[in-house]
Records
---
Amino acid sequence: MQFEWTADDKRFREELARFLDETLPADWDELSKEGPGSDAQAEFSKVFCRRLAERGWLTPHWPSAYGGRDATPWQHAVLSEEMWSRGEPRGPQYMNVNWIGPTIMEFGSDEQKALHLPAISEGRVLWCQGFSEPEAGSDLVALRTAAERDGDDYVINGTKIWTSYANHADYCFLLARTEPESKRHKGISVLLVPMNTPGIELREIPSVVGHRYFHEVFFTDARVPASCRLGPENEGWAVVSHALQYERVGAPRYARAARTLDRLADYARENGTLDDPTIQEKLGHARTMCEAARLLSYKVIDQRAKGLPPSADTNVARVAGTTVDRAVGELALEICGENALADGSFADANFRMSMTAGVAVGATEIQLNLIASRILRLPKE
């Protein structure tokens, strides 16, 4: 088993790190505390992602026909690690490049590819995902938002909740039920909905996580052309399943957690607590969790590099990543002590962001259920 990076991968990481050192503003740590949903970071991402795109670094893993460089899945992993370790300066656009674009490549019409893929690869567009609903929660297939066919259009009615980045998004990757009497996985379609469509209303949900992070999105007789549908009608579950396989390891939270641990060790050294055996043990245990999450993610990336189909290993990697992110967030509170109580402090901001880890892209509990059924073959009852 080979764990060494290739010379090209090492060179890419070094070039990317230098670019980030030179490009991120001096107040980036402060700017990034509110997370990618904030107004300031969303605006910064538009400039930053275009600069990445100019260097071919926004979507390097995409095929060259769609604006990429045909880079390996491993270079995509390098890109994601460096971005997440620095607080994800791509902001909401990390979703575009990780899973929305590849899903459009797989299921989109020629017209959809021509419209959306250049805009994503050039850093000109922001997306949000319309998945969760008030009565469905983490049970995604319990969705009730309806898209009724009316001639050449769909008329959408329903509500989405906990929608990140909706206030800045140009498009929504929307799941809706297009077969009225269908249940669970059947009768669902994916629609690529322009957010300026009449009949769409946003309401921000106040949150301890950060400003502008969560929203409710209301659809009232919102009419979109049938050409907005991605993939076959009523077969959207296959589309979203494909998308989620990319997203679950597309956010390497272990990289962010590892960088946070380095700062916590420096803080403990400065305040004299690093010599405490208990603190040493906790830092060491957290670092081990980071490495375990990294290797589990690499297993999934290796499968992609070999052209293997998606597997339940993505669920395992996802749980490992969210678990370490939350554990390091809690450790930051412990090590920083009373200083962690200050609003906006390093520990406070870290903990608030780590709170989202086990909810986004399918709750950790849902991932554990999938692991139980797909790997352990446990009965549902």
Note: The chain is about 45% helix and 15% strand.
---
Amino acid sequence: MNNKSERKKKIIKALLKKKKDELRICIIGAGHGGLAMAAHLAIKGFSVNLFNRTKGHIKALLKGERKIKVEGKVEGFGKIKLATNDIKEAIKGVDIIMVVVPANGHEWVARACAPYIREEQIVVLNPGRTGGALEFLRTLQKTEVEELPFIAEAQTFLYASRKLGPAHAKIFAVKNAVPLATIPAHWIPGVVKVINRIFPQFAPGDNVFKTSFNNIGAIFHPALTVLNAAWIEQTHGNFDYYIEGASPSITKVLEVLDKERVSVAGALGFRAMSARIWLYTAYSATGKNLHEAILANPGYENIKAPDRLNHRYIDEDVPMSLVPIASIGDMLKVPTPYIKSIIRIASVMRGKDFWKTGRTVEKLGIKGMSIEQIRLLAVKGEI
């Protein structure tokens, strides 16, 4: 065993020996998810720093008691240790960095953290969408970080949550289980053990390609938003996004998109779960088809639609979820005509070329790789 592996093992052991109140956590992002996660962890008794790139979004937490109100499945006030827009200050001395920003911000976060990040820290992308951990790794390598931290991605976000105010969030549901994978894959068991100290819901995933292709947001978010575009523009999102927006006919489109995603994963040799099975795994929601399973999920009740089309469900999920699936499909000669149609329509609606800005195989650094090489990349983190 080489020196690097020995060091990494010692780091994991040291983190596992720490007492609960000794673990230090930084949440990057004070949006719908980050605010909820920061409050929840603070209520659980952890030391929490909260970073947001835009100072105005954390203005209410810069002074005074620094308390975040949370309601819903978690109730109370979480007092954080620090709120800042200084990334150096935010991640200094912390053990776990939970990145809770739209996936098109992952590259920026990696570049911002690069001068200050340390080998003994764990970075978790919540979630990675498709190719998040790989992009984060590539970015740190490009900035010549010598000793890389542990890099992990969650398959999906732990909560269904919304930000209700500058220091106020609501958690509608907490998922039963969320797979987590690292790159390279052999760090998964140790990293999950550490993360389980703050969130028992995280479970070992197989590898980062498996978590990336089980990214169900790729199926639920872009198409549901595109196909409800007129309703969103007319009502400014004043309808239940899933319960009303996922009509029987629209859900048939989601099922076709889902089959394409599963087919591309299969070409890589990974068995991706269907969206219907995912609903059962994450929320215990059942149904004979996807439409019934969505309606059976209490976690989706009263979640309103986006109030506009310039929303992360398109601007994040199309380039960071659908584009990499379709691009890998092209490389492996797996047709994805329906996924590509949503990419094209969304690009027209938003006046953006999402294929150009998205995570293509070229940008992920896997263009021309064989299936064997891709699988080795997942296991070893290098070719």
Note: The radius of gyration is 20 Å.
